[in-house]
């Protein structure tokens, strides 16, 4: 004769050897701490790097445009366009991350410091 289902648990282990404890009736499996948000960690190094990229990119864009218009004389005018392109390539990520940092500091919805890569890891 086969043992009844109520006397065994899962894989044939008798119920008297299974150890468990009942949950309280008021416990829903959640605790309040898991829903609390920790204060945002501000990535100061990343914001400093973004500021540096923004300033250097702006300077290179200004110098490149002055070279291109002829306000600064250069003997080889074919070297002015790369200065402008490098300035734009450096300016864009700096501007992007500074904008995210500004909106996150002001508390705009959808912006947080988590969107800025942190270099402390």
Automatic annotation (TrEMBL):
The chain crosses the membrane at residues 46-68, 80-98. It comes from Astyanax mexicanus. GO terms for cellular component: autophagosome; early endosome; Golgi apparatus; late endosome; membrane; recycling endosome; synaptic vesicle. One of its GO terms (biological process) is synaptic vesicle transport. Pfam families: TMEM_230_134. Its main location: cytoplasm. It comes from the Eukaryota. It is a multi-pass membrane protein. This is Transmembrane protein 230. The keyword Transmembrane applies. Keywords: Cytoplasmic vesicle, Endosome, Golgi apparatus, Membrane, Synapse, Transmembrane, Transmembrane helix. It is found in: Cytoplasmic vesicle, Autophagosome; Cytoplasmic vesicle, Secretory vesicle, Synaptic vesicle; Early endosome; Golgi apparatus, trans-Golgi network. Involved in trafficking and recycling of synaptic vesicles. Belongs to the TMEM134/TMEM230 family. The keyword Membrane applies.
